[in-house]
């Protein structure tokens, strides 16, 4: 049994009785959960931040979108740094920086400092998060990954929807008179524990061949993403200037230059930042497309949902947070059974059923919002939220498994970085579209007594867009393999996962 603090040598077999890999899994999953919660926890505290810190709408938008921008821009680089310098090392650097940035957010003296700290937090998450799937991919043998990715799907579901509830409780309790600040400070004990335990239990792993950091690729990826996402984030605030459209069009040119450069880089020294050969794997290419569009759905829904309840309906943070509990339970339950029980038998039909279920829940929500208006009660929202939660749970866990199922382990860092990057790109695109699909419907100079009706209309309009995006997801899913090759009737096999880098203990 090798020491978990050292790099396992090539050829080291998996120690079947080594329970420390499960401790390592718990640590990296906790870090992933911390990141997922931080993405959603801010939304529920927006009214408190506005009141206490005097933040403008523009600053609030940057507090939420700045994190996603920094996260998306750095994820591919973070994955490659883990491949080069060691996934454990980069993970520990990332979680340390994330913890420090959380402290800066919690003690921010003004909205400008909070925005800057959130951007730093997103950058540190970009180092930490890609290592999670890479460490799982390198630590667990192929026949165990189905179970692990099922757990990961449950964590994704819990993180996405428990953030608002946790944020609501911390904000309502007003601990030590700190208002919204504990939503960030809660990361400190979790992060410190992750650093200490991670050093002890996580095994080091790297790509089996020497790689170089592609600095030109880093610049092109970062520039392309910022040129695309910055105008979307600030477009409504600046009345959609011409230069914004020019920047978004220019981002396509930059991405084209990136592809051309990466092809030359791969031929020259085999160390491109974006491993384009991954897109020759059908399951990966199709999964990436689904992941991107799914991110748009999440970006639109969660922010609009929070604003609808707290600002439009005038609910407290706690009431809004508790309303999401049925959704959280449904996501977790569906994610838990999807990979282990359903996907091996029904393949991509499970994911497509998830898209249909989410769309059905959205349509029920649209009907209820119109039927009950401002008088709608939390219990009346339970049905659409449960249906949507089941649909989301059927998607999140199998999708991760499908995207990575045939990826060689030496490209695990690049692949996981791309998975997270495209989802964050989709989320940021969704956040940008909120300006059009939600605020574009609401009269900026609406009288106070008209606010509930205006927000109900905006909510319904945004949900129609979400339903349309889910229809696109359903169609794109036909490009996924009918049944993942690593699954056979009765269980998973490791036949299709190339063990070019042995699993580590």
From TrEMBL:
Q: Where are the transmembrane segments?
A: 22-46, 58-78, 90-109, 115-136, 148-170, 182-198, 210-230, 242-262, 283-308, 320-338, 350-367, 379-404, 425-442, 462-480
Q: GO biological process: any one?
A: response to antibiotic
Which keywords are on file for this protein?
Antibiotic resistance, Cell membrane, Membrane, Transmembrane, Transmembrane helix, Transport
Q: How does the UniProt record describe the way this protein sits in the membrane?
A: Multi-pass membrane protein
Q: Looking at the record's lineage, which domain of life comes first?
A: Bacteria
GO molecular function ontology, one term from the record: transmembrane transporter activity
Residues in Major facilitator superfamily (MFS) profile domain copies: 24-485
Where is it localised? Cell membrane
Query: Record's Gene Ontology CC terms?
Result: plasma membrane
- Entries under PANTHER family matching the protein: ACTINORHODIN TRANSPORTER-RELATED, MAJOR FACILITATOR SUPERFAMILY MULTIDRUG TRANSPORTER MFSC
- What's the protein called, per UniProt? MFS transporter
Organism expressing this protein natively: Streptomyces venezuelae
């Amino acid at each position: 049994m090798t020491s978990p603090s050292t790099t396992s040598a090539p050829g080291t077999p998996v120690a079947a009785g080594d329970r420390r890999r499960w401790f390592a899994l718990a640590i990296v999953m906790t870090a992933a959960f911390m990141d997922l919660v931080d993405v959603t926890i801010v939304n529920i505290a927006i009214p408190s931040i506005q009141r206490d810190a005097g933040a403008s709408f523009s600053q609030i938008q940057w507090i939420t979108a700045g994190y996603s921008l920094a996260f998306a821009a750095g994820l591919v680089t973070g994955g490659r740094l883990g491949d080069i310098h060691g996934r454990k090392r980069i993970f520990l650097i990332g979680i340390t920086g994330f913890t420090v940035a959380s402290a800066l957010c919690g003690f921010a003296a003004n909205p400008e400092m909070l925005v800057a700290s959130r951007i730093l937090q997103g950058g540190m998450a970009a180092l930490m998060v890609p290592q999670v799937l890479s460490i799982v991919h390198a630590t667990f043998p192929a026949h165990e990954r189905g179970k692990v990715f099922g757990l990961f799907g449950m964590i994704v579901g819990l993180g996405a929807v428990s953030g608002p509830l946790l944020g609501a409780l911390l904000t309502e309790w007003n601990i030590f008179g700190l208002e919204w600040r504990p939503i960030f400070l809660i990361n400190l004990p979790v992060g410190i524990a992750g650093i200490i335990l991670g050093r002890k239990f996580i095994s080091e792993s790297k790509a089996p061949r020497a790689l170089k950091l592609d600095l030109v690729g880093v610049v092109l990826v970062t520039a392309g993403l910022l040129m695309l996402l910055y105008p979307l984030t600030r477009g409504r605030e600046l009345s959609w200037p011409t230069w914004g459209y020019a920047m978004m069009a220019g981002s396509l040119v930059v991405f084209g230059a990136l592809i051309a450069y990466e092809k030359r880089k791969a031929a020259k020294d085999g160390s491109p930042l974006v491993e384009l050969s991954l897109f020759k794997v059908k399951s990966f290419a199709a999964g990436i497309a689904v992941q991107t569009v799914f991110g748009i759905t999440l970006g639109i829904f969660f922010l609009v949902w929070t604003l609808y309840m707290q600002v439009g309906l005038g609910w407290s943070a706690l009431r809004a947070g508790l309303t999401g509990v049925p959704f959280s339970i449904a996501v977790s339950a569906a994610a838990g059974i999807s990979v282990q029980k359903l996907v091996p038998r029904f393949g991509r039909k499970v994911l497509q059923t998830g898209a249909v279920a989410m769309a059905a829940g959205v349509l029920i929500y649209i009907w209820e919002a119109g039927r009950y208006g401002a008088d709608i009660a939390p219990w009346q929202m339970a049905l659409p939220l449960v249906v949507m939660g089941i649909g989301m749970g059927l998607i999140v866990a199998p999708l991760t498994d499908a995207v990575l199922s045939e990826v060689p382990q030496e490209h695990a860092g690049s692949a996981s970085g791309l998975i997270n990057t495209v989802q964050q790109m989709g989320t940021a695109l969704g956040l940008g579209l909120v300006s059009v699909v939600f605020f574009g419907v609401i009269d900026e100079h609406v009288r106070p007594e008209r606010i509930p009706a205006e927000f109900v209309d905006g909510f319904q309009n945004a949900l129609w867009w979400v339903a349309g995006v889910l229809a696109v997801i359903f169609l794109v899913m036909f490009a996924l393999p009918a049944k993942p090759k690593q699954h056979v009737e009765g269980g998973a096999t490791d036949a299709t996962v190339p063990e070019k880098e042995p699993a580590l203990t």
